[in-house]
Amino acid sequence: MPTGAPSVRAGATAEDEAAPLAPRARLLPALAAVYRAQLSRARVARIPLLFVATFQSIGIMVLMRGVVDGGSEARAVVAGSTVLVVAFVALNLLAQYFGQLRATGGLDHYATLPVPPAAVVLGAAGAYASFTVPGTAVTAVTGSVLFGLPLSHLWILVAVVPLAGAALAGLGAALGLLAPRQELATLLGQLGMSAALLLGVLPAERLPGPIGWARDLLPSTYGVEALARTFDTRPDWAAVALDLAVCGAVGVVSLSVATWAYRRAAVR
Q: Which residues of the chain carry a pLDDT beneath 70?
């Protein structure tokens, strides 16, 4: 053969030679691509549900206004209703989304892409959590006006929404990926949102002991507590930072579990 020409083993043709695989995408570029794709999809398909989540939270505050006048109870109602918007989208809808992906074989599509499993989970979770920002802002402002709470520290939502969203989105993704059937994933997502409603909106001092312990295990609780503390005249910022740190740590754990659940579901 001429010098420099590629050598081919005897009896083999060009078609028999395996084409080299594309290099595996790095985490951050893959994460950005999945995030943009999921955010575009959510913006088209989930806007009506975002209105439902926002109106639901505002409706709960209007109902509670008849039995709660102010003080710590009013702060708990407004904070819990605000974080409930995050729970509805990031936990409930994400559990349904991953449950549907698993049931319909949609995970096979992602499994064929050269992207890390963490990018798929984090991208979807980040998109769904970001989608809750308008609803949480509207709910927090409406609740503060309704109960006469100060608006000066609502900037804390910049930290509460992503941290609570990460924790709840990781939990929702894990529930959807681990549920053996799509219907069970939907049920678990609804139960998780109901727990965020009952344990987050109701004041902690009104809950019995065992239910209070369950409240401490709910990821959204620490986001609710952090937001509620900022409605005080002089917020305890050390306690707020501690609640946010716990919320962030729970988010890391829940997203790690969701990534493991994705790997487990994708190879089956």
A: 1-25, 41-47, 267-268
Find out whether 86 and 168 touch, Cβ atoms under 8 Å. yes
The 10 Å Cβ neighbour count of residue 185 is 26
- CA distances from residue 93 to 15, 29, 179, 216 in whole angstroms, order as listed: 46, 25, 14, 23
CA-atom Rg of the chain in angstroms: 23
Output the DSSP codes for 116-181: -HHHHHHHHHHHHHHTTHHHHHHHHHHHHHHHT---TTGGGHHHHHHHHHHHHHHHHHHHHHH-SS
Residues ≥6 apart with Cβ < 8 Å to 12: none
| Model pLDDT, residue 14 | 46
Give exposure, 114-124, as e/b (b: 16+ Cβ within 10 Å).
ebbbbbbbbbb
pLDDT at 267: 65
Instruction: Let me know: does 83 contact 220? Beta carbons within 8 Å.
Output: yes
Identify the pLDDT of residue 46.
Answer: 61
